[in-house]
Amino acid sequence: SSGINAEWPLRPGNSLFSLPTSTVEKVKCVQLPAPTTKLPREKPIPKPKLPTKWEAFAKSKGILKKKRGRMLYDEVAEEWKPRFGYNKAGGDKEQNWVVEVPGNGDPYKDWLGDKEDKTKEKVAKNEFQRLQNISKQIKVQSESINQTVKQANISTASLGKFQEKSKDEKKAKAKGKHKKFDPVSGNTASEKEKSLALINKIASGGVSVNKEKAANKELGATIKRSREAERENRTNKRRSKMGVKAQTNHFDMKKREVSGPGKERKKRHQI
User: How far apart, in whole angstroms, are the C-alpha atoms of residue 80 and residue 9?
Assistant: First the structure.
């Protein structure tokens, strides 16, 4: 049952006989009250198993599984026999001593032995496919477990450095690019060497500079600075013409226009 009755433990022992009873196989049984409290599952709901090769093929081709009968008619013995197992239909070698040879077949070939070899090959093939399906399921489960463990290790600040590891567990590695920075204090010899190497490279002409690109970039920056300066001059002239009180009223009105509740509604209607 997936639940318990919260009132049942509070009942006295004598009230057990007041419950409805029934006789099952000459044994008197008491019908317990229906559960009222649902209990959660101990373990999560199992995930559906991956289909085997044959199941995937049958689904793609629309092949439906049909249950075959257990008994099969043996034409030699003229009676019904089990399909598999002991005394199966067509299993008596003495009765099946004749094999039909095809019209283009070799009359000197051992057709009985060939039939047995094909049967053994089918059995071996089925066993191999069964083991393949099992290994596939185990591989998927192990990959899922490894991914969960890896995620748990990466979730810690130390990347699982101080956690206990299993026998074949590998060290967790953080993904992504890690940029290494030089120390800002201490020995400055490496920084000096890098600076000298860069100066020598520039002096020797080893650094190729796109002069046209650099000139265009500088020209664009100059134009931008001049526009900003011109805009600032215009603003200063406007403020000098207006009085202090007029400036205050002007900016208050602008603020109301921007932050007013009807401004946004008017914009929406215009759009």
Answer: 58
